[in-house]
Amino acid sequence: MKLVDESELAAALDAIKPHVAALDAAVAQSKELLEGNILYMHQSTELNPKNEAKQRNLLSLAASLPVEDSLVIEIGFNAGHSSLLMLSAHPQLRIIAFDLCEHSYTRPCFNILADAFPGRLQLVPGRSQQTLPRWARENQLRADLIHIDGAHEPEAAKADLQNAKAVARHGAWVVFDDTCFSPLRAVWSEALEAQLVEPPSESITFCPTNRHGIARYVRAPARRAAATEDLLWELAPILEHRGRMRHVLVLAPTDHGQDSLLGYLSKHRLWRGNQPATSKKLCSNNTERHQSAWLSLPLRCDLPGDPFPCLVQLVAPHFSNLQQISDCFPLVDGALVVVDCAEGLTEEFCQIFGKAMTQGLQPVLFLNKLDKLLSLQGDNELCYQRLAQIVDRLNDIIEESPARLSRLAVESGNVIFGRGSLSVAESIGGWGFGLDDLVAAQATRKHWTADQVAKLKPRLWGEHFYNGRSWGSSGERGFCKLVLQPLREIFTMLESATPQEMQQLRSLGIVPKDDLVGNAWKQSAMEAWLPLVDILVSAVANKVPAPAAPPSNSVFYAARCLQTTDGQHLALGRHVDPQRIAHLTLPRAVPATIGSWLLNGPAAVPLSTLKASPGTMLGIPVESASVGAITVG
Questions:
Q1: How far, in Å, CA of 411 to CA of 150, rounded?
Q2: How many of the other CB atoms lie within 10 Å of CB of 333?
Q3: At what angle do helices 154-163 and 182-193 cross, to 10 degrees?
Q4: Burial of 479 (0-12, 13-18, 19+ CB in 10 A)
Q5: Is this structure's pTM higher than 0.85?
Q6: 384-412: per-residue pLDDT in tens?
Q7: How far apart are CA 9 and CA 12, in angstroms?
Q8: d(C-alpha 377, C-alpha 355), whole Å
């Protein structure tokens, strides 16, 4: 979680001034005195400077929630100032507010915000100690953040804190207001001691303040110690939240490097843990792929400041089977495009890439085997031209698509350079970088200041040249001078490997593994410096959107049936909008049993104890195998 600074808070407050003015006018029209809130003193519209820390914390928490499927439960709406702050911080956040509605200004203020943020705000009137438990029983929605600022009587506040756990997702944040008052501070301390809630980890920073408490609801403390090694314990918070999932199709012009990349990612980021005893092994599809065995690869991505990882589910059909690839389009929301930058694109691949773009799949490009290109082409400028041609050609196809997709832009982080891995068997040597990653590494090596880094970043791609004295339209291209040439120098040093050179490389973190030789030894040094697995999976998690909520009339669409070693058939798919597959004539399969499975590489894991979020990619048991896409139901 990134804590907003004072300037960012000032900008946020400035942006909501028109809404604040409208709320203030509604309060004034009511002739009632305004209760104290996150902006103002009690019974006043005078700004309260003591609440700045609260404002920064709440704004940061709301902004940190997943873009899709995030919900806040607020107990105590009053005039809506806290709701306004959170709604303004997040583009899609929904808030369900519980309020006694004893003030005549509450409903008019709610109406103002409901009009300003249509479909994102709901009011539940009544005493929260009764309305919240009833709402929890009648609704399946669960919240990522609970903001408690309701009744100040200790017993009522304690009931709100306890009742809210029933509407909280696993590990949801809870902000308990007004801990500056000793009775409420005692309620908060008791909740911490009883392990109802637990403080945030030391890696997450908040503004210190005594005016509210921030914690997370504890997940089943009695069984947590025994369950933390269980796969489903780890997966539950993710599978129950669409915003923490990414469904991504792997596309490549050739098989060169794709299989070794998938093997490398699987080795380092496939979900680990004790699987239920009823899990099953999947039959390998080695007869259809060159080497990679599994169609579905759910990878773990740990994002900075977030205690819960993101699930990046790669779908990897055979690179040359156009029908299999097309069948997978409805399953995914993005594409990881793996291109051997020495070999480039093929016309057939450009056609299938164009079809994927027409389906609205947001791409992330991995320019693989950069070391191969540098070894084959000694001229840095020609290497740059080769890379730029690939990016430009794909961007031309993106622009021809009717879907609104972000272009591939090296400076934005959706283009990664590097080397996937040496082989499927070894799964070592995977290294890579976006421009920000390499600049950070170079800044350490060359002792650049923050100002120098800020000036250099825009010059690392495109028509930016350095003539030895200044930047302009002539000289050596920035990407060649500051990216490609330093890489060549590092490879040269690894080749000669003198004691002095190795000491210099070790100071940068470029340290090869002792038990390797030859090319594997050199590539392992690059992996130690710029580990690809974190950089590439994070780029996918940050750039590909989460799955959208399927409509109420959704159908389960499966791209493929896979078989377990005991003969059961599982249809890999997810619920989709019928309009997305309306152009297809599809056979319909009958579910064999009730229940769903997670296809985790070589294993099928039963989800009998989990209720996966709508839109999750799952395996559904069917009575018989089918070739090609089907619907189930």
A1: 46
A2: 20
A3: 40
A4: buried
A5: yes
A6: 999 999 999 999 999 999 989 999 999 99
A7: 5
A8: 32
